[in-house]
Specification:
Helix 1 (about 15-30) runs antiparallel to helix 2 (about 35-40), helix 10 (about 275-285) packs parallel to helix 11 (about 310-315) and helix 14 crosses helix 15. The N and C termini lie far apart (about 125 Å). Among the domains are: about 80-140, no CATH class; about 190-200 and about 220-290 and about 335-400, no CATH class; about 565-634, Herpes Virus-1 (2-Layer Sandwich), CATH 3.30.40. By secondary structure, the chain is α/β, with parallel strands linked by helices. The chain has helices spanning about 15-30, 35-40, 45-55, 80-95, 100-115, 120-125, 130-140, 155-160, 165-180, 275-285, 310-315, 330, 335-340, 340-355, 370-380, 380-390, 420-435, 450-455, 460-465, 480-485, 495-500, 525-560, 620-625; strands at about 185-195, 225-230, 240-245, 260-265, 295-300, 320-325, 605, 610-615. Helix 11 links the parallel strand 5 (about 295-300) and strand 6 (about 320-325).
Length: about 625
């Protein structure tokens, strides 16, 4: 039966202690099974089975090793070891973000049973899948498994958060902390998030059985305002900075904002390079860094965070900017880990309360600062802030905060090259030694690890280094280190399931003609990195200027005035006009001085000097009589 319900109310006293005592009385004191069962309130038949099992094992009665489930059991398709293999495979597939749905588990169980030649119900063969009853019992027998709704994770994040990228970040962090002797008070993190006027409604209590229950929102599609925050490892924070979706910034945008708040505006409402420079000034005003007492600012590699003006301003005011590896902010950025999640929750509640208190009114972007002011104290608490830095391994410093299971999703694209990874490892160890013995960062290359990120990597295809794994000294091969990224290993025959249903694995690398450049974790304010970014900006501006000129020339040709009827420009003859004042490459009208290349009118030549002029600029009678003489020749 699927769900058996006991129909009797017999007193059950089946414990290991009572069963052991009863068996001991039967064995050593010549008691009968019936007398012992009555004395200890056990079932006679059950006690006989317990006694028979312990007698067959020919071992002394032990309360811990005595099996209490020696009775009859339901028929099973797989043995206990085979089910362990199945559980290990399902867990491994889930760890690398390629989990199996219930239907896929049932199909895998059928393939596994067919391979092992197990006796199975006929319904399995007709549907080529295990039954629903078996799946339900399988989940109950293995409490380590449960049916969960997965969180959507991009492939870029899953593959970029790997051992190599995280090691590069902590190597750079190591060097900065060692050179500047920074304490948690001087470690800050800055990041942006979007606040919209349309909230996600909270759960409400409604009528049971109704198919759909609604909740009011301000608009169908809301207006987004960017909120930029900075927090320190000791729980301090800088007042918020807003970027409004307007062309010009006005003071009344911040009427209801928190004390000390600042803002800017642009058409999109997103953070731009110009806005980030303003934010750095806002940060310096409240954090008060200096060249004598610098601070470390952790941030991502977004393009708006890399303005040359901002890097120069940060360097001049004692701000050391260290960037995270690309697509790893969900695991390394403290604000994303413990602050912005609670903030969005409290913002949703505050917007819902505002709509109930202002019925019939529409929320606009001007109300966002007031909403943030109400929700911010509950979210940006010192406990939340410090928990984010601790979870990222930044403060207190712990570069081993992430286990091999955390890097499991990157196993799909884990294709290291032993020669390249050994070179990177040797350069990394040299970088740490150099960092501890160097006192200045500006005169020498900022760090050897930056040299690796900016120079050595250029010689290696970048796609091959995105998911490279550092090979530790003494390891047999890169494949050995990459295969150990999953903690749960299958049993001796665990490869059977992987042969039946291979785990996803990226194919061989393709040698592309052009590989897109991807930024690495670097110290942005160090001189070599800053100079490199400045050159990139100059090249980008030059390309943009050339593209703009090309578009203007194309637009000029399209908007040129139409030719007048009967006034077609005279084509150049093989005999180029000659004369004392004529340029070999161009010819100009004697009257209006318009060049021939830009003219659309017909031209006429002086019979004496050979100079040219527009027909519209000279006397019509002389042209008709073909006796045109210029004013100089008359």
């Amino acid at each position: 039966m699927r769900n058996y319900i006991r129909k009797t109310a017999r007193v059950q006293n089946v414990t290991r202690e009572n069963v052991s005592k009863a068996i001991d009385m039967v064995r050593n004191h010549n008691w009968g099974v019936v007398d012992a069962a009555r004395e200890f309130k056990l079932s006679e038949r059950s006690l006989f089975r317990y006694f028979k099992v312990s007698a067959n094992k020919e071992v002394d009665v032990d309360e811990d090793s005595l099996p209490l489930t020696c009775g009859y059991s339901s028929r099973k398709i797989f043995t206990a070891d085979q089910e362990k293999e199945l559980v290990a495979y399902i867990t491994k597939a889930s760890d690398i973000y390629f989990g199996l749905s219930p239907m896929e588990v049932r199909k895998l169980a059928f393939s596994f049973a067919t391979f092992l030649d197990c006796k199975m119900p006929k319904s399995w063969e007709s549907t080529s899948a295990a039954g629903k009853d078996w799946f339900g019992s399988f989940i109950k027998r293995n409490p380590s498994l449960s049916i969960r709704k997965p969180e959507a994770t991009s492939l870029a994040r899953a593959s970029s958060f790997n051992q190599y990228n995280v090691d590069c970040f902590f190597n750079n962090l190591d060097i900065v902390l060692a050179k500047y002797k920074l304490t948690p008070l001087e470690i800050w993190n800055v990041d942006e998030t979007g606040i919209t006027t349309v909230q996600v409604p909270d759960r409400i209590v409604g009528r049971r059985g109704k198919k759909q229950i609604g909740s009011l929102t301000s608009q169908e599609r809301g207006t987004l305002v960017t909120l930029c925050m900075a927090v320190s490892a000791v729980g301090n924070s800088v007042p918020p900075f807003f970027v409004f979706p307007r062309v010009h910034m006005k003071d009344d945008f911040l009427v209801n904002a928190s004390l000390g708040s600042c803002g800017s505006a642009n058409k999109s409402g997103w953070m731009t390079e110009k806005d980030f420079v303003l934010y750095l000034q806002h940060f310096v005003k409240h954090a008060r860094p200096s060249l004598e007492k610098p601070v470390l600012l952790l941030l991502d590699n977004h393009g708006s965070h890399l303005p040359v003006e901002g890097l120069n301003y940060a360097k001049a005011n004692g701000i050391i900017m260290l960037s995270f590896p690309p697509h790893t902010s969900h695991r390394l950025q403290p604000l994303d880990l413990s602050v912005y999640g609670p903030l969005k929750h409290y913002v949703n509640g505050a917007i819902g309360a505002w709509l109930k208190n202002h019925p019939g009114q529409t929320m606009t972007f001007r109300h966002i600062p007031g909403i943030v002011k109400e929700a911010l104290p509950s979210a940006i608490t010192p406990r939340n802030i410090m928990a984010g830095f601790e979870k990222a391994g930044v403060a207190p410093y712990n570069r081993n905060i992430f286990t091999e299971d955390d890097f499991a999703p990157s196993m799909v694209t884990d294709r290291p090259n032993q020669n390249q990874t050994n070179e990177v490892e040797d350069a990394t160890s040299t970088a740490i030694e150099t960092a501890t013995t160097t006192n200045e960062v500006e005169d020498v290359p900022p760090t050897e690890i930056e040299f690796i990120n900016l120079t050595a990597i250029k010689e290696i295809p970048e796609a091959e280094l995105i998911n490279a794994v550092l090979v530790q000294p003494g390891s047999s091969s890169p494949s050995t280190s990459s295969s150990s990224s999953i903690s749960s290993q299958a049993t001796a025959d665990g490869s059977v399931l992987e042969n039946l249903r291979p785990l996803p694995k990226a194919g061989p690398r393709k040698t592309a003609a052009r590989i897109s450049r991807q930024r690495k974790t670097v110290i942005l304010t160090s001189t070599p990195v800053k100079d490199m970014i400045e050159k990139e900006k100059e090249k980008t501006a030059e390309r943009a200027t050339k593209k703009l000129f090309a578009q203007q020339r194309k637009a000029t040709k399209k908007t040129a005035p139409l030719k007048a009827k009967g006034k077609t420009p005279k084509k150049r003859t093989k005999t180029t006009p000659t004369g004392p004042n004529v340029d070999e490459k161009e010819c100009y009208c004697l009257v209006c001085q318009e060049p021939y290349s830009k003219s659309i009118s017909a031209w006429v030549q002086c019979k004496k000097c050979g100079e040219w002029a527009h027909e519209d600029c000279v006397d019509d009678m002389s042209i008709k009589e073909e006796l045109y003489w210029c004013d100089d020749c008359i």
